[in-house]
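Fold this: EAL domain-containing protein
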Amino acid sequence: KSKDDGRGTWSFFSDELNRKLVQRRELEQDLRSALAEAEFELHYQPLMETTSQKVCGFEALLRWRHPARGLVSPAEFIPVAEDTGLIREIGAWVMRTACQEAAGWSVPVRIAVNVSAVQLREPDFCQSVQDCLRASGLPAGRLEVEITESVLMSNPERTADVLRTLRDMGVSIAMDDFGTGHSSLASLHAFPFGKIKIDRSFVNDLGERRGADQIVRAVVMLGKTLNMRVTAEGVETRRQLSFLKDAACDEIQGFLIGRPMPRSQIAEFLAKAQSALPWAA
Ligand code: C2E
Ligand code: MG
Ligand code: MG
Ligand code: MG
């Protein structure tokens, strides 16, 4: 009897596993054609400077307009793109497109681009960024590269070299999702970061969970001491905004300020942001 139960369980798991593998292979094949078919697009989420309450930049966030599945989230396909190496081509497209589109904005705010570890390991990564800047005419000072701590784990010496080269080109470097990795403090010291982005999970816990307020205040102070700007991610409520203002956090990003929007909405958003500020306290 127990044997039957066991076999039943096994076949359930193996079916499930099989289904996942098939899905993954399909996703991989679809990703390959997505570039050729131009199914990727960038959406842009605004960042607001806390003191002036002005938009100081946008983060480029990748979207995949799948013919059958609709808009697919990067959380779903970036890991597969990284495993298969497709992220190199996709990432190059993101960098080129973000620079081009940002160069045409009516207000010269910064554009932040997420870069994965696989891309940083490419021998000609810095050159390819330089090419994107030259081709688009975007000044290097308007480009920011966002990386997560996991990027720093594999081959830290080489990564530090690459990041220093970018910094020397005039590009700024932000540490994304700060606080969720393993080596935050050591990394801040060893790499040329100009900005810390406090992970959304801490912002979400403000006023809700013991310690969150203190941690956020401490990270803001840490940033000031190290001469880095500090951005809070995932700000959704006015309460969070006023806490972060009070804590002197430099920049805010989140649904309260604006959701990621297609490029067609940027001009209008920038125009509105000059006059009426819906988020002004
Ligand atoms: P991330 O770089 O930390 O980007 C912030 C994510 O938080 C975005 O999710 C954004 O839509 C979401 N977000 C922003 N404000 C709020 C908020 O107030 N509330 C909530 N609940 N969420 C908010 P998205 O666009 O799904 O991207 C997920 C992740 O995928 C990004 O996290 C980034 O790690 C990765 N990603 C996106 N685009 C690219 C890309 O072009 N290249 C690479 N390598 N990774 C990318
Ligand atoms: Mg990011
Ligand atoms: Mg982030
Ligand atoms: Mg994140």
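Residues 152 and 159 are 7 Å apart (CA to CA). The pocket of magnesium ion (ligand 2) is lined by residues 59, 114, 146, 176 (CB under 6 Å).
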